[in-house]
Amino acid sequence: MKATVRYLERLSRSFLLGWSLVLVLCLGVVDYLTGPDLPLTLLYLLPVGLVAWCAGRDFGVFTAVGSAVVSLLADLLVDAGASHPLLHCWNALTHAAVLAGVAILLSVLRGAREREEQLTGKDLLTGVDNRVAFLEHAGREIDLARRYGHPLTIICVDVDDFRGVNDRLGRHAGDVLLRRTAETIRGHVRESDTVARLGADEFAVLLPKAGYGPAKATAHRLRENLLRAMRTTGHAVTFSLAAVTFASPPLSVDEMLGQADDLMGSAKNSGKDTVMHAVWG
Length: 281
What we know:
Blueprint: H1 2-10, H2 13-34, H3 41-55, H4 57-79, H5 85-121, H6 131-148, E1 152-159, H7 162-169, H8 171-187, E2 194-197, E3 202-208, H9 212-233, E4 239-246, H10 253-269, E5 275-280
C-alpha cells in the first residue's frame, strides 16, 4: 500500500486530476442508476482524498466541488421535479463542504508528514542526512549491490580532536566547523553519493558502484579539500578518513559500519590526519 501511494505521489497533478474527475463521473452514473435510496457520498471520498493527498489542497477542493456538481445533477435527474430545487442545492452544498473539508485535512496531514520526514531524515545542524536516513540508504544500496554485483564503498570522516575545538573556542565555533565540513564533503562527491552525519564529529559517505581506484581517489580528494577549507576558515584541525570498498556486498549495514569503524580505529592509532583504505571480500 505504501509503495502504491509513493507511486501515485510521483504522477503529475494534471494526470491525477483528470483520472479522478473520470472516476467522479463514473460515480455520478452509479448515483443516478441507484437513485436516492443508496447515498454514495462516502464513495466520492476516494477521488477527492486521492487528489488532495497526492496533488494538494487546491486540486482536492476542486475535485470536491466537481463531485458535488455531479451528485447534484444525478439527484435532479432522478427526482425529476418531485422535490424543491433548493433542497437539492442545499444537499449539494453540504456534499461539497464535507468533501472539501476532508481535502483540506488530508493536504494538511500530507504537509505534516513531509515536515516530519524532513526532520527525521536530515541533520538539523549540517543539512546532510542523519544516521536514520543513512541506514535506510545503505540498506537499499547493499540490496542493489547484491542484486547486480557491483562494488560499494563507504568512507567515514572524523574530525581529529574535535572536542578540543569546543573546549578552546566554544560550541558555536564547533558548529561552524561541522557545517563547513558537511558542505565541503557534499561539494566534492557525486550527486548519487549519500552524505550523512553519523555522530558528533563523524560523517560518512556512501559511494554506490565505486571500486577501489575511484574510491581511493575520492577519499584523498576529500581530505585535501577538507584541509584546504579549514585553512580558509581558520580552523587548525585535521581529518582521519577510513574507506572500505566492498567487492562483494556486506551481509548488513551493521557489518559495513563495523568494518569502517575498525579501520577508523587503525587510522586514529596510527597518528590521525591520514587516509586508510581497505578492500573487503
